[in-house]
Prior knowledge:
Strand content: 25-35%
Strand order of the largest sheet: 1-8-3-10-2
CATH topology: Jelly Rolls
Helix content: 10-25%
CATH class: Mainly Beta
Order of helices and strands: EHHEEEEEHEEEE
Number of helices: 3
CATH architecture: Sandwich
Distance between the termini: 16 Å
Radius of gyration: 16 Å
Bound molecules: fe (ii) ion
Number of strands: 10
Amino acid sequence: MFRQQFLNSIPQEIVDLVVKDYESRNNYETSTMNKTHPGDSLFLVLPYCQKFFDNELKFKAGNFYKHTIPYFPHTDFRINLESELNVVIPLQYTGEQASLVIFDQAWMNDSVTWCLNHDLIYFSVNTGVKGKPSDYPDVQFQTSEPIDEHFYFKYLTHEDRDLYFGMSGVAFPFQPTSIMAFDNRLIHCTSKFKGEKLGLSLRFSLK
Ligand SMILES: [Fe+2]
């Protein structure tokens, strides 16, 4: 399934304009994640995203996001929107550089968030579910082994290792001026990090 990071793909001047657009907003959807609609920033970044794809990118949904706590493993696909392509644009961060971990495992149904060994959390789009991906036989391409030890220690020690049983993947550094694009049926999460990061997350159909 498609998954690629394109480094040095958006000029810093455009990144600065998009950050300025975010900072000009005065209301956010949730106080904890500071989500807000991409607005005009979509049109600033779209030409830089489009050039990597032969098919026209049809915008379906998206938001700015700013957070200090890693996101749980989740997917973003909505069957009714056919919004299978995620484009994540890192904008700025403080502290240590985080990575976006994109696993090899996929969930072909409507998007969910695995709450691991935490209490179930309500998410409006990526429905919160109990437990870990390996508890769900519908998760495709599971290995039958613990997650690679080196990969776990480098990116995922904020959660217990057994919560990633059956999983494998890659990590893209949260590098401003890069574009991360991937099939959002692939399970993904934030690496461990300390600090705050701001990005733009866009979902497209390629049909
Ligand atoms: Fe996501």
